[in-house]
Amino acid sequence: MSLGFLNIVLHAHLPYVRHPEHARFFEENWLFEAITECYLPLLNMLERLQRDQIDFRLTLSLSPPLLTMLNDNLLQQRYVNYLASRIELAEREVVRTQHHPEFNRLAKLYRRLFRSSLDRYTEHYQGDLISAFKRHHQHGTLELITSAATHGFLPLLNINAAAVSNQINVGVDTFKQLLGFNPTGFWLPECGYYPGLEILLKAAGISYFFVDTHSILHASDLPQRGSYAPLDCGNHVMAFARDPESSQQVWCSKQGYPGDFDYREYYRDIGFDLDLEYIAPYLPNTDNRCNTSIKYYRVTGLDSHKEIYQPHIALAKARKHAADFVNKRQQQLAQQADNLDRPPLINAPYDAELFGHWWFEGPYWLEQVLRLTAAKDSNLKTISAREYLQNYPDQQCAQPSASTWGDQGYSSYWINQNNDWIYPLLQQASTQMETFVTELSGLSVNHLQERALNQAVRSILLAQASDWPFIMQSGTTVEYANKRITDYLARFNYLYTSVRQGKIDERYLSALEIMDNIFPEINFRNYCPGSFEQ
User: Fold this and answer.
1) Residues 59-72: pLDDT tens digits?
2) What is the secondary structure of 364-411 as a DSSP string?
3) Residue 533 above 50 pLDDT?
4) Assigned superfamily of 417-526
């Protein structure tokens, strides 16, 4: 009999970035780095655990933009080109560092990493990572769930019902089309919840979702089991709360494991350290230096001095941190077990890209956690939300409170003085689209008009992505985020006006369809919300 359950949830998401109009584009590297450092290592981990017959459960949310990019032939080929470029750079680094043994060992490590990634991607998976994840879902150890169409921040889109319902429905439909089955779980972008959202989720066939802790603790009724069990929102859709203790151990910049001095330093990369003339052939353009994924230093400390990275020391530290994490979860569950009428459940959700990309040792740490929890004497069992609900279908009914995760726990990171200008424009576009589709109800449209209206919906969805206001607030690639928003809204306005006036430029429409080719099965007729039963 276990003390309780641990539900580890990884949310895999990247904004939709695809630029066929350029030979190489800086932001496409976000996907290529994540495949190399996160998604392939996670698949390798899953295969090792399956090979060793480890009994575990892990949940992975694959967002529709990420699924679409993983499935895109152009980006698949560009990823292969990216790896070829990284292999060439690593080869040069092996030569350049031949008289510096510690650096040379690391250069060879990266050469092995890039070569192995290329072999796994092209030969083992044939470029199809979606099917690879699906196989583990079918095996029963990996639970796959989905998210909103373009990761739109639903609480701030809620002024227009059609905007929220389309984010949900298109997200679910995209998952079905690419994975071949219906998702039962849903990752709310940024854990953004508002009362009533569960009605739209139920209409889309969703059984559960995740919120931050205070959403459950501040529910309409005092949660009898605290954050250690889900709440039934009143329509048999369940809200699971994030556990703050397990989150802090991994997420916290000061106390979390990834900040340990022995781990690899993400922010020190040869793309910034070496001469521009040497590194330029491996950059998307010579105007901006960027990460190459070749990093020679460890976190070391808070000052600017960095010691050389020692992989064997870092992996030993990851094993130690995994044991510490499991031990603390065991203590946590033991403290709660006598207070509840059923085994307590700890929900530990994280951004998937933390594991491997930001925290190089993260996939190894996660593997050790899953192995330790699978041990017969661990008294701790990993479980998915779906499996938990099969075992415990009856839950307390209460209305969770509006909430998000992130800074201050509500919506302040996604609406503030740096990004609030976008929301009136998004709301105007949504209202125009909903009104127009309503007017067209029962009327016939020709093929060209249908293509333009479908593309207009794509433009609205892409403009609604929560990534752009997040970037504006975080201050990273702000210029690119501003351009994405304004470009998508300009495309919508052009398409909307063209259809209204009966003056569609088919050549320009075709160009937009090539550039923004997400959601190929979308149907503008579904834009208006229907009636949803509670």
Assistant:
1) 999 999 999 999 99
2) HHHHHHHHHHHSTT--EEE--HHHHHHH-----B--PPSB-SSGGGSS
3) no
4) Families 57/38 glycoside transferase, middle domain (1.20.1430.10)
